[in-house]
Amino acid sequence: MKFDYEKELRTLFPNGETRKTSERRYWINVPPGELQDAVRTLRDKLGIVHLSTIVGEDLRDAFMNSYIFSGEVVVTISVRIDRDKAEVPSLAPVIDGAMVYEREIHDLLGIVPVGHPDLRRQILPEDWPEGVYPLRKDYVVAQGPVDPDKKEEA
């Protein structure tokens, strides 16, 4: 008999929005305060331990982090994050591999993984201005006028 991941995920996450998105893909939405427990549940109850990536997204009115775990199935845990208090509990103490992804998200979107043990820059140069996040939708790229007839100097 085939294991029913959809039923098991609905049982394990009764307060989270859970859905099957394709044959072997599942999506769970949890509040930020439940993120670490949700990941521990995946790890301890279902043996899903491989964090493939974390995708950060600016929704304009909030942020969304999607934590994509893979094993026999792919489970995405999504967390909606308040734009005015862009914080989410760090997964670095809970699951291997989270540290680098969280540093990238912090660099590019300014989402703070609270409890992260080493939040130094990952993507942006050390002299990048504090508080400027290039993947936010309100980020403005500074660009001077372009003269199409002028050749760039090497």
Q: How would you characterize the overall build of this protein?
A:
- This protein has about 150 residues and is an alpha/beta fold.
- It has helices at about 5-10, 35-45, 100-110, and strands at about 15-20, 25-30, 50-60, 60-70, 75-80, 85-90, 110-115.
- The longest helix has 12 residues, at about 35-45.
- The chain is elongated, with a radius of gyration of 19 Å.
Relevant terms:
two-stranded parallel sheet, five-stranded mixed sheet, single chain, 7 strands, 154 residues, 29% strand, Beta Polymerase, domain 2, alpha/beta, 3 helices, 21% helix
Topology, element by element:
Elements: H1 5-12, E1 17-22, E2 25-29, H2 35-46, E3 50-58, E4 62-70, E5 74-82, E6 87-89, H3 98-109, E7 112-114
Parallel strand pairs: 2-5, 6-7
Antiparallel strand pairs: 1-2, 3-4, 4-5
Quick gist of this model?
The protein has 154 residues and is α/β, with parallel strands linked by helices. It has helices at 5-12, 35-46, 98-109, and strands spanning 17-22, 25-29, 50-58, 62-70, 74-82, 87-89, 112-114. It has one domain (5-114): Beta Polymerase, domain 2 (2-Layer Sandwich).
Q: Can you give the helix content as a percent range? A: 10-25%
Poorly predicted runs are none
**In the CATH hierarchy, what is the architecture at level 2?**
2-Layer Sandwich
Sheet with most strands: 5 strands, mixed
The amount of beta strand, in percent, is: 25-35%
Mean pLDDT: 91
Fold-level CATH name: Beta Polymerase, domain 2
How big is the Rg? 19 Å
Main sheet: which strands, in order across? 1-2-5-4-3
> In total, how many domains does the architecture comprise?
1
Distance, first to last CA: 65 Å
Which CATH top level class fits? Alpha Beta
Number of helices: 3
Order of helices and strands: HEEHEEEEHE
Number of strands: 7
Q: Shape, please?
A: elongated
Query: Which homologous superfamily in CATH is the superfamily?
Result: NADH:ubiquinone oxidoreductase Nqo5 subunit
Please state the structural category. Answer: alpha/beta
